[in-house]
């Protein structure tokens, strides 16, 4: 017994650095000592029972900078124990890393590293990349440009389920877009301007958008079943780190924690956040009207001169507007984060819901209001097509550059600098590790899958809302997504710090968001078809009949959509069977347990009863 | 130990007869003996460990008839054990009976009483009424005509959750209708024929129908939480009794059971059931057209003569049609049951879903097709109102008579006969018990809450679909429901055999059915308002604008409805809190368990590891 625990305490035996902690420069020695003790203390004493080591030893710190970096690691034994503790030991053989990160996350909760972060003692905590595993992952993922599926299971092994699910969805969505792109191409090639052909396209679009979302649910269940997170039990939610309030007693857990009145929060939401969001929406519409003025101005300029040069000028307002939309979206994103954080939600999930709602409403209006205006107020299909094309292509190009390529280039430049500096030192240390820590310390932090899903959501909007006017949209989306996979992969592997692994069972609220978008797209497409000259020609004398028929068809389609969504099972049959088997076995086990209980009671209780009667 | 079990075996000590088993006349003595042994055998030998006794002893059977009736009972001890076995011992003190019925149900499964029923050995198995408890229940329930809430908890104690939930829903729905009825009355009293007032009424109706369904979910959660069934674990579903097939291995349970190919079932559904349902729908529409012919004939007759007598004649076609609708509904119900049973579904839930779908589609069309036809094809609001009133009132009157009053009268007559006959015998037996068994043996069996909910569903349709044309509908519905509570209670207590108690957590598929109806009612009401002359007068020159505005308002209302349904939490806050507390505690317990596991592993496994390293 003694042997075991002392073995776990030593630093030397099989130390693999996994997480880096950076402390503030002015932290006192006592604090450091306390933190170290919390990390290396045994489980039963409330510690994390992990290994802790400064990046540089005493001698080195005198010659080099960065003396407040510490490495946290674990022995192989601790990793296995962690895996067992979270119940993750199953048939997979790629989960050593995962077991650790997941385990660590729980252990860190013990001394609440988040509180240390907000108090400023700890500057940052991040897991280190594993250069060897990363190289292997990159080789199968994106470095070779061949057409093949992504190694989703390896991505999940390295980054965790949440990120793997995003890449799985991105891939699935791209493949799902291909039929749309293929059907859309001839419209461009043969310049099919007939609206009756657009009717076919729109009808196809309706069924397509419903079916792909339903099929995704099944594919997603397939993946998460394989990973063991499909039936994941939600962790009991602790208050989120930013939450503050007067200390009180939580009526659910009975623990002492900050309490904040729900009434005050409601006040903040309805008196500050809501007016602010409305103001932003108004501002967005105001900008849109300026765009239309510019559009008119450009058109009049073109008509006055009629030269080739002014023909290109026609696209300029749209491009400028697209860039402004991107900028507004990003600015609003920060404001929404600030406001939602200020609303002081107790739970991370409530915070996320309020944030998603704020951001989605604004982004939807900001991106699509001008298109709806052109389609249904101006009724100018040519302008709609031009505007849609410019918005879609500009936003995609901007995203790729701002999100991945630019940061990658900056990161590479910085990497060369650091390498040069480290080589110049020629100190007697583990150069590779030192270099890695210094480099990754400066990398950006991955802020979660929110922005990535949002991008796909808006893309889905461009493709499905007005696809019957611009069938080429799907082709552009496919093209973008093929490069997006690679640039996102590059971003994850080379530009950003390695994120902590998060388990998840599905894409969550985004499924709902995509489904809502597809309902809106049914309505929009029906309206567009109803407005087309071809359909109008069928009812030359009575416009009323036309509208009534379009509305009836739209209602039928919506009903069909809901029935379809209801009729397609969310989980594939073989998984349903396996889950039923699991449930059956656990019920059998429960029954056995209860039988035992009854048998035990039979031995004890009734005898008393009988005795009384006999007496 | 010996004392206990032998005490459980004796018949005499505290025998309360609870269930009656009627065997076929030609059952052999060996079969009877076997059955008896299965019932009284101890639990560990696979028996039910209950008491079993013929209704009459040897001597009496010679002088009296009905010698194949047997009583199954339980001692007080067994009841308590049963309650404990199903984990029902909680703060309630009314659950002795419930514990028994529930327990029995499980014990009977052991020797599959259903198989004995289908094989014809056992004619019927039914629980006996408990005259004393029944009297008490009736006194607080319906015998005294005072305006008060029903004793839902007592109903649940006597009949189980499923039936109590029906009465709870009936009561809730009646109270929810009162505001509608109150607002509707002045329309009748002051003969408000202005359509703008109908617009107000319809708008109110929209919000009302959404809100009451959402609020019901919360009330229902409240009740079932109190009863402990809210978090009820679904029992693992065994094949339903009627299911047959070639013996095979169930891949989920690994047990041998009948297997029936899903392909064959699909064939039966799509090649037989579906065409049959379509044929019935066609027939129903055909009957409807005959009704309209009759309507025209009656009108022409009235116009020719113009007398007071023919004025009444105007209502005759509607009344005849209403009666025919009722008859068709009932006939179709039997056909649907036969067909669904013939489709040979393996699970009771699949059977129920297919049956509900078949019956709902037909009943909806059968009851409302003529109204839709009058409203949107004939556009005759006067006829619509008259037709609606006749249909609603006739169907309600018919239902009350056929369902409760007529059977009650027959039952009473039969009761007097039995009493006279028993008193004439003057044999030396427990006359009260004998009389009760003979009487209840002949009572009808309660076929579940299906028909009762269906009736409410159709009523909800009459009230919400066309309420803006006939605001008095709600008042009639309220009036009907107040008597319905009493006649249904009478039916449950005096006309039908006591049903086995069934636990349930909600009204299940009916919630969905009511919600679908309320969506249809939004669409219908919007269309009716759009057709009204008043609204049309606002847009004298452009009918197109009017339709577009109505459609836009309808979409906005539907969106609002979905947002409202989404925003109102399904469970009241205090229950959410309690459930969260429960979850927290179970997670804490799990954590404790895992901690122990880790501690144990620390003691054992690592030592091996270290030893190896040391070696």
TrEMBL record, chains A, B:
Secretion signal span: none
GO molecular function: chloride channel activity
Top-level taxon: Eukaryota
Topology relative to the membrane: Multi-pass membrane protein
Anoctamin transmembrane domain span: 155-581
Transmembrane portions of the chain: 163-192, 198-216, 269-292, 312-332, 355-376, 456-479, 546-568
One Pfam family here: Anoctamin
InterPro entries according to UniProt: Anoctamin, Anoctamin_TM
Chief subcellular location: membrane
Name of the protein this chain belongs to: Anoctamin
Origin species: Urocitellus parryii
């Amino acid at each position: 017994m003694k042997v075991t625990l002392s073995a776990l305490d030593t630093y030397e035996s099989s130390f693999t650095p996994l997480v880096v902690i950076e402390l503030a420069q002015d932290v006192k020695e006592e604090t450091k000592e306390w933190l170290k003790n919390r990390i290396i203390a045994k489980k039963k004493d409330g510690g994390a029972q992990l290994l802790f080591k400064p990046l540089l030893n005493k001698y080195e710190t005198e010659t080099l900078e960065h003396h407040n970096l510490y490495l946290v690691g674990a022995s192989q034994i601790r990793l296995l124990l962690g895996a067992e503790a979270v119940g993750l030991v199953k048939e997979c053989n790629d989960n050593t890393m995962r077991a650790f990160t997941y385990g660590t996350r729980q252990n860190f909760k013990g001394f609440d590293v988040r509180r240390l972060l907000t108090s400023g003692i700890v500057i940052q905590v991040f897991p280190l990349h594993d250069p060897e595993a990363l190289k292997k992952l990159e080789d199968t993922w994106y470095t070779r440009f061949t057409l093949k599926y992504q190694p989703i299971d390896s991505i999940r092994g390295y980054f965790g389920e949440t990120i793997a699910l995003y890449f799985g969805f991105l891939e699935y969505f791209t493949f799902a877009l291909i039929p749309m792109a293929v059907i859309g191409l001839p419209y461009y090639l043969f310049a099919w301007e007939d609206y009756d052909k657009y009717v076919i396209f729109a009808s196809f679009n309706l069924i397509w958008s419903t079916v792909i979302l339903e099929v995704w649910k099944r594919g997603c269940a397939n993946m998460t079943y394989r990973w063991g997170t499909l039936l994941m039990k939600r962790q009991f939610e602790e208050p989120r780190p930013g939450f503050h309030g007067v200390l009180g007693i939580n009526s659910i857990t009975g623990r002492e924690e900050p309490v904040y009145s729900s009434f005050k929060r409601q006040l903040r939401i309805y008196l500050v956040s809501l007016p602010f969001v409305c103001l932003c929406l108004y501002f967005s519409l105001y900008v849109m009207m300026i765009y239309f003025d510019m559009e008119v101005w450009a058109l009049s300029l073109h008509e006055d001169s009629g030269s080739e040069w002014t023909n290109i000028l026609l696209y300029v307002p749209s491009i400028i507007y697209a860039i402004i939309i991107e900028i507004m979206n990003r600015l609003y994103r920060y404001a929404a984060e600030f406001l939602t954080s200020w609303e002081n939600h107790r739970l991370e999930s409530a915070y996320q819901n309020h944030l998603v709602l704020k951001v989605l409403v604004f982004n939807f209006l900001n991106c699509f209001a001008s298109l709806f205006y052109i389609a249904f107020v101006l009724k100018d299909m040519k302008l709609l097509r031009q505007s849609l094309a410019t918005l879609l292509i500009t936003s995609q190009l901007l995203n790729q550059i701002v999100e991945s390529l630019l940061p990658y280039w900056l990161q590479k430049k910085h990497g060369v600098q650091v390498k040069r500096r480290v080589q110049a030192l020629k100190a007697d240390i583990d150069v590779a590790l030192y270099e890695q820590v210094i480099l990754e310390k400066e990398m950006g932090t991955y802020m979660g899958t929110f922005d990535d899903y949002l991008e796909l959501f808006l893309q889905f909007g461009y493709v499905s809302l007005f696809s019957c006017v611009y069938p080429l949209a799907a082709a552009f989306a496919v093209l973008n997504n093929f490069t997006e996979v690679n640039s996102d992969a590059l971003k994850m592997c080379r530009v950003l710090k390695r994120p902590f692994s998060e388990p998840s069972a599905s894409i969550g609220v985004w499924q709902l968001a995509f489904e809502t978008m597809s309902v809106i797209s049914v309505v929009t497409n029906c309206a567009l078809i109803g407005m087309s000259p071809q359909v109008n020609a069928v009812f030359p004398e009575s416009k009323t009949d036309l509208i009534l028929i379009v509305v009836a068809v739209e209602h039928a389609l919506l009903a069909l959509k809901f029935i379809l969504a209801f009729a397609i099972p969310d989980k594939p049959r073989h998984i349903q069977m396996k889950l039923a088997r699991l449930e059956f076995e656990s019920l059998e086990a429960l029954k056995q347990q209860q039988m035992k209980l009854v048998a035990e009671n039979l031995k004890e209780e009734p005898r008393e009863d009988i005795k009384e009667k006999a007496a």
